[in-house]
């Protein structure tokens, strides 16, 4: 296992060597707003205490933001035909936490801390609060000016994606197959609507569900069919991504996969190839290994399409551009 630990860590590091510059660095707010990260962490902590589902929501939020237009808070913009209006984003939550942090920071350090940085830092803190590793990430992201619903569907993973489809999308973002397996571990938290995995079941004329995807554990499938009854399969009912430890960031996701209890087809697809199955097995057997590799993969994720210096702006409100 020690050799495997070294191999995985080297694989991640060799794929991403980040050159920190003044406009995107670990101490970017040291002079302009030194308490920025503390304020964000405090708000994420208090919000999570009031609502244990917040960490999972913030983690999903950063994925959906960074994969479309890069990590630039384009998902936060409100309006006709913005990213929020796409069906794939209508169930994304955590916006209020980001806005709360933004309001606090605007009082202390006006027009200084970007919404994009708040999203990335809040997701980072959410993982730590839920029991996962605390990761250092650079700041200095600027907020984007473009948010279009038409950009969402081609840039986010659909729960029915095959391995090839996921690899193609991740590669387009500068992320490797190893990153794909590591970042899929985010499904150890959060919830999903029943219609996100409805293609694993078949509904007859009388509305009764039967399992058609035989890769899914039968007892787990029976529980899902019970929770997603005929009247709720396409409604607002949600189930936990991880049926075992849904509010904890741990390696249970990989254990679930090996037990054929991955909620989505895109989860189960990780077992279809020997290389990715081996990674799943390693992370399932060694939580420390998963945590070590999570840090590098999360750093890469939150660096996708980053805007710095004269790109974008520092929004006064995350919901609108400054000239709106």
How is this fold's topology laid out?
Layout: H1 2-15, H2 36-50, H3 54-66, H4 95-108, H5 115-129, H6 163-172, H7 177-184, E1 191-193, E2 201-203, E3 209-211, H8 218-227, E4 238-240, H9 252-258, H10 265-268, H11 274-285, H12 287-301
Antiparallel strand pairs: 1-4, 2-3
Helix pairs in contact: 1-12, 2-4, 2-5, 3-5, 4-5, 7-11, 7-12, 9-11, 11-12
Family: Belongs to the peroxidase family. Ascorbate peroxidase subfamily.
EC number: 1.11.1.7
Cofactor: heme b; Ca(2+)
Features:
12 helices; oxidoreductase; two-stranded antiparallel sheet; lactoperoxidase activity; 324 residues; mainly alpha; single chain; two-stranded antiparallel ribbon; Secretory_peroxidase; globular
Strand order of the largest sheet: 1-4
Helix-residue proportion: 40-55%
Work out the strand percent.
Answer: under 5%
The poorly predicted ranges are 9-19
How confident overall, as mean pLDDT? 90
Structural class: mainly alpha
Overall shape: globular
Query: How many beta strands in the DSSP annotation?
Result: 4
Secondary structure tally, helices:
12
Termini distance?
Answer: 54 Å
The value of Rg in angstroms is 20 Å
